[in-house]
Specification:
single chain; 9 strands; globular; Jelly Rolls; 9-stranded antiparallel sheet; 118 residues; mainly beta
């Protein structure tokens, strides 16, 4: 069994930015380094980073995040607001809709679990 260590991310960074129709505040761009994908393609782990900006999100998956640098605000479509910063860990449940707002350039480690296709 392989243990996944985020600091050993040797894979290249895949550029990332929100889709233009989801942008709330321009400027966000960054990248993703996936360090793990399960054999069934339902679980991913890696490192994500982004510059300041805000965009609308809809989560079909569940995601655990651990912020290693920076700060962000997540606002649900119901108006609930949470701010996260370096050192914070949190879970975004599947079904979450709202806005990701990167307040300070940030980096996070993530584990994503996609829903089963049953």
């Amino acid at each position: 069994m392989r243990i996944i260590v985020f600091r050993s991310a040797a894979k290249p960074v895949e550029p990332w930015q929100p889709a233009p129709d989801r942008v709330v505040r321009a400027g966000a761009a960054g990248g993703t380094q996936n360090v793990y994908e399960s054999p069934d393609g339902r679980v991913f782990a890696g490192i994500w980073h982004a510059t300041r900006g805000a965009w609308r999100v809809v989560y079909d998956e569940m995601e655990y995040c651990h912020v290693t640098k920076g700060r962000a605000r997540l606002t649900s479509s119901a108006g609930e607001v949470i701010e996260v910063q370096a050192g914070d860990g949190f879970v975004i449940p599947n079904g979450f809709e709202g806005v990701w707002d990167v307040l300070e350039d940030m980096e996070k480690h993530y584990v994503i679990v996609l829903p089963s296709q049953a």
